[in-house]
Task: structure prediction
Amino acid sequence: MKLAPDVNQGPTFLANIGHKTSKGIKIFPNFYGLILQPMKSRFTTLVFLVIFPAALLLTLAAFTIIRSFPQEDLKGKYQYKDFETALKCRSCHPGIYEQWSQAMMSQAYTHHWDEIEYFELAVPHAEVNPALKDPVDGCNGCHSPMAYMVGKFPPPRPEEKSMANESVSCEVCHLTQRAQTEPPFNFSYYIEPGRTKYSGREPEIQSPAHKIVQNDFFRTTEFCGNCHNEKNPYGIWVKSTQLEWKEGPYAREGVRCQDCHMPKGPYTLALMGKEREDARLHLFHGAHDPGKVRGTIELRIEPDMRLAEPGENIVFRVALFNQKTGHKFPTGSVEDRIAWLDVEATDAKGKTYHLDVDKKGFEGEEYTISGDYLAYQDMGIPLKIKDFKGVQRDGIPYGNRIFRMPYFDEQGNMTIMQWNTFSQGVDYRIGPRETKVEKFTFKIPYDAAPGEMKVRAVLNYQLLVKPVADFLKVPSDESEIIMVNEHSTHVEILP
Result:
């Protein structure tokens, strides 16, 4: 059963029907009165009375589904005192706590870019456009679930050290019983606070602090999909990592998210327990871990000839093979992220030449080749900058191939604000076990030094495009260039 429209317009098909009361309840007009009044024919009226109720019921059913998202039931349902702190869990699970505290799970709310994006862009945007209030509140459903469930909007800033800072805490995961949607998305988890904690394996002992119940849901990718799939107010899948996995080869082979991001190893999960050879480590290595990113894509470059004279064309082919990720690369917040292929040639005297990628001619390709473009103009709305011209779209050398999927606002400008994404462009990311081949036709310069010319291909990655990071004063580690992989070849330039 689908829980929201899949069309780009999103759940707007009821937007202009009826009105909301002060409590936000949708009131529909008298459809029969509005439509039957002009009907003169008994036959027409009869047909309408038979057909229209069925159509109306279907419409209202769809409306009810949209209004009954599980996240709406969670909003403000509990109090902070209903949840244990991660520090209390640490008293019995010190190793697991230390792993979690170094992972993004513990920083989903306090991480500097997430804080800037939420407080400097999302919250002010919702103040300008009240229709965004609920979606912006919903950010906390994954970034600070406890704050969402206690109804604190916006939560206190991280420096105030509230329980919102727990981010995705021990309690959030180990109180989750199931997903309430299929597919799971937008924090569709079902949670009940209490003494019962859930685990993916049968407990060998019972804790004195709480009851442990084995729950097979923990072994599924749907568990992860609760937050790693996301639809925005326009019905756009702005995050779809679990769905990408589901459509790829690893799903068919039974390799799950947990197998890569929570690897098994010898570890003692609790002080009162024994070491297990197959304990799930709570490392959650992902996009923010350079060690995880490096080597994900294999890279090879080859020339179509080894000897060339100045003025001749050499075609270099670069093969990029996604050997390590069970989803597309990049994935997750791909409105922010950028991966690009840079190819340079260096002649025998050390002079360097930049190679531009050959165009393939597919629709939307201009967004996959770096250039001198401005973008992200919609940042001017929450920042209250009139007629904001935007910032540089890419911030990397011109002519490089970019592996991305652009996000667009209603005006057709690229955006990093996923809640404001009205449509998406060509998806030119590298799928799991997919190989992309790029060509670089290089005319040997007449002034190139004779001898060996080295040609190096490098795949780089950034979590956030640097012009945006610089403009919003995001700490530099968020736009740090991570080298995914490299490979070199050479050709001989004849005198």
